[in-house]
Write a structure and sequence with these properties.
The protein has 409 residues and is an alpha+beta fold. It folds into 3 domains: 198 residues, Beta-Lactamase, CATH 3.30.450; 111 residues, 2-Layer Sandwich (Beta-Lactamase), CATH 3.30.450.20; 72 residues, Winged helix-like DNA-binding domain superfamily/Winged helix DNA-binding domain (Arc Repressor Mutant, subunit A, Orthogonal Bundle), CATH 1.10.10. The chain is built from 14 helices and 12 strands. Strand 1 and strand 2 form a beta hairpin. Helix 10 crosses helix 11 and helix 11 packs across helix 12.
């Protein structure tokens, strides 16, 4: 099963093996009994990974030390065919070693039952382990002899492998080691599940932001005091124009005093109504227009309440979304997508886009450097393929089509 794309994409598609620059004695002293403080510290490191995948190496390093191991690894994507997989490992002094080795996919731990902690001795005798190709070609060169392994299955997401290793001169993993590992597994599972959920939400949020940007809608999110918490790229572009709207002390301001009062009153009205609403209920919406010193068509402004819940009360919480759109903005759908949607030729698509942006047939002919008769022929073909009869209908279907959503972010 596949792993979340962002977690795998944070590093190269390779197995990361980290070398440990330390000399192990013939015997490794057993770690002191695990205290509540140390266990709590381990859990904190595990749950930190749910928000920041870069912290996995630090988390695995803490686990490695707790087990007195030389390596601790999380298998995110297993090796298969030409794909050598993806593994995050910790081993003290970290560095990347070459992963181009054909033996990495031959591990005897690749088919263990999920949620069951096993060690090398559970699967193979010492002689069988020493004689295996995987041990001789991969483990022995890296000082790995004792292995404790467990697979963590997340339904609908994937199966992750968790591994801790020790060198041959170190003691094998004890029942106490197994017990600690079993206690850590539920928390590792939850952290991985949380990461998958957070990453999913981020991807969906990114998709919505992109869609809003392509639809040429500016979005400002305000807190309970009307202070801007965030804004999208289109909002930044509109503010940069300095044409009717600006930002002062992190609040929206209109150029003209009368408009500024109306804007302030609208936001305050939505804020007061939103604080009394309930999550899931229809949010209050108010609208107004803002004059532009340039003389161009006024900005259309809509403010909508964002209802809070019992879990989102407090300072700096999203309370109002303000939407703005330029009625004169140009439509720039990707020509390839417009062709696919309406089955047009490249020449017909170019003409349709110019007409959708408000040009007359003569103006579009001049911009495209084609004869008027040629443009008329293209227009007749466009009408036939799209099923419209008037130029105004053509403009409407183009502006309302999904082609705009295909622009690159």
């Amino acid at each position: 099963m596949g792993a979340p794309a962002e977690l795998a994409g944070k590093r190269q598609d390779a197995i990361l093996i980290c070398n440990m620059n330390m000399t192990l004695e013939n015997t490794v002293p057993a770690p002191p009994p695990l205290s509540i403080e140390r266990f709590s510290h381990l859990l904190g490191a595990i749950y930190d990974t749910a928000q920041d995948t870069d912290s996995w190496s630090a988390c695995l390093e803490q686990v490695r030390k707790e087990f007195s191991g030389n390596y601790c690894s999380l298998i995110v994507r297993r090796a298969s065919g030409a794909d050598l997989g993806y593994v995050i490992s910790a081993a003290g002094d970290m560095r990347v070693l070459s992963s181009q080795h054909p033996m990495v996919g031959l591990s005897p731990f690749s088919c263990i039952r999920p949620e069951r902690v096993v060690t090398t001795s559970d699967l193979l005798s010492p002689d069988e382990w020493r004689s295996s190709v995987y041990y001789r070609e991969w483990c022995e060169p890296h000082g790995v002899f004792h292995v404790m392994a467990v697979d963590i299955d997340l339904p609908g997401i994937g199966t992750y492998g968790f591994r801790v290793t020790r060198p041959e001169q170190a003691p094998p993993f004890s029942m106490a080691d197994r017990s600690l590992c079993e206690h850590l597994i539920p928390h590792l599972r939850r952290a991985l599940t949380l990461y998958a959920a957070v990453n999913h939400d981020r991807q969906v949020d990114s998709m919505y932001r992109h869609a809003m940007g392509q639809l040429m809608v500016a979005v400002f999110v305000l807190d309970e005091n009307g202070v801007i918490l965030e804004r999208n790229a289109m909002a930044n572009d509109i503010v940069a124009l300095g044409d009717g709207i600006s930002i002062s002390s992190q609040k929206l301001c209109a150029t003209y005093p009368a408009d500024n009062r109306k804007l302030y009153q609208m936001i305050q009205k939505v804020l007061s109504q939103g604080s009394q609403g309930e999550a899931g209920k229809t949010a209050m919406v108010e609208a107004m227009s803002l004059s532009r010193p340039s003389g161009r068509v006024a900005w259309g402004v809509v403010a909508q309440a964002i209802h809070s819940t019992e879990w989102t009360e407090g300072k700096r919480r999203p309370s109002v979304a303000v939407f703005m759109r330029d009625a004169e903005s140009r439509s720039e759908p990707p020509a390839r997508l417009a062709q696919q949607l309406f089955q047009l030729t490249p020449a017909e698509t170019s003409l349709a886009i110019q007409l959708a942006n408000g040009l007359s047939l003569d103006e579009a002919s001049e911009v495209l450097n084609i004869r008027r008769n040629t443009a008329r022929a293209h227009l007749r073909s466009i009408f036939s393929k799209t099923g419209v009869r008037r130029q105004t209908e053509l403009v409407r279907i183009f502006l309302n089509s999904v082609a705009l959503l295909g622009n690159e972010p």
